[in-house]
Amino acid sequence: MPRLDPNDIKFRDAGHGYDIFGLNPRTVAAATRIAGLLYDHYFRVTSHGAHHIPAGGSAILAANHSGTLPLDAAMLYIDVLTHTDPPRVPRALLDVFVPRFPFVGAFFARVGGVGGTRRNCRRLLQDGELIMVFPEGAPGIAKTFNHRYELQPWRVGHAELAIEYRVPVIPVAIIGAEEQWPLIARIDRFKVFGAPYLPIPATPLPLPAHYHIHYGEPIALHEDYSRPDPDDPEIVAAAAARVESAVQVLIERGLRERKGIFR
Known about the structure:
alpha/beta; Glycerol-3-phosphate (1)-acyltransferase; 35% helix
């Protein structure tokens, strides 16, 4: 990936080099240089349909989740930065336990991560940001190898936000992460800083699976549902199911088209 210039990264400076959530362009550029090595040379990410990423304005990227640790989120993050001009920083919504980890929570904030509260999401969408969500949540990355590419219960918050704030949802399928670090077991009783489990992977390091990231056409849920509809659980569930179905179709297509796990 090309070297990012911090001056090319657009953000709402709160007056001290950070936005209100803690994003800092210099940290983004530095982190991208390091993660870019994994993106280019280890996982060798191939992007498909990146033209569906909006060049500007609010939108929600909704992707499948896997891989024991959220390396898939990092690769999607780099892919978005690589394929937008000027580069857009996708604002990853973090599970509530992530900011509790010392240093890790602060780092995620510096590169654009945001706690996934309704108030934070509202502010991001009002500011025209690109949100990155994984509706499977922690159960997605906790899948064992024999359940790879099986979507876990699909949370509906992204659909509710899309309808309420009238923004498109871009379905995303990440192929390769399901094989990168097979999970053979987990210890659910071992909880540190609120993390839901302790993973036990099959290998000491992730395997160099070839990533393929597939973007689908934007889904305009807000054109089919009116503003009061987010208050209707059945409507929201149906809207979220449409996004889940679109991601599933992309997963199936990606699995058919790839030539192998490592190439």
